[in-house]
Amino acid sequence: MPDLQGVGFKGDIFGYLIDTTLAKNTQYYCLSYTWGMGPYEYSIRMGDHRICIPRNLYRALRYLQLKDKPRLVWVDFFCINQEDAEERQTQVEMMYQIYQGAREVVVDLGHASDGSENLPGLFKDIIVAASEEYGIHAKPQTPNTLAGHWHAFKSFLERPWFTRVWIIQEVIAAKKFIV
Question: Which of 28, 54, 86, 132 has the fewest beta carbons closer than 10 A?
């Protein structure tokens, strides 16, 4: 698991891998994200090694990085040797336990570029509409007012993260998750 330290310079992220077992009751976080197709233009330093990573993973790790202390994070990109079929199979069989054992699962949906920053307005409008349904006085919204919000919501749900089958296991197993 990389231990992400907030001691970076020039955009670098620093970390290291530790070997541990689930039985040790280690406090860690899991990252749920969508693998990038490339290019691998960013990097993370692991000891004396620099590992190239895709932009979406870099952004997620930056978000997870604490300024004043290390954070232990399980990330499949680093923790599963994709070149070793036997290890990969063993890790995949343990995924539910890995996510279930995490203090928190952090879901990274990717960069907001589809209008999803407007979703709070949609949720407010849904609450207003529900309030009217139950007899609570609220200002009605017209379909034209909601159109932009619904488009943003549709775009949000079309993000690649939602198409991954693994997310079901990752979210169901989580004690707590944050998006």
Answer: 86
pLDDT band at 133 (very low <50, low <70, confident <90, very high): low
* Bond prior to 39 in cis (omega within 30° of 0): yes
Reported in sequence order, the residue ranges of the chain that DSSP labels E, i.e. its strands, are: 3-4, 13-15, 29-32, 42-46, 49-53, 71-74, 104-107, 177-178
> How far is residue 21's CA from residue 78's CA, in Å, rounded to a whole number?
16
How, if at all, do strands 177-178 and 104-107 pair?
A: parallel
User: At which residue do the structure tokens 């998750």 appear?
Assistant: 177
pTM, whole model, 2 decimals? Answer: 0.71
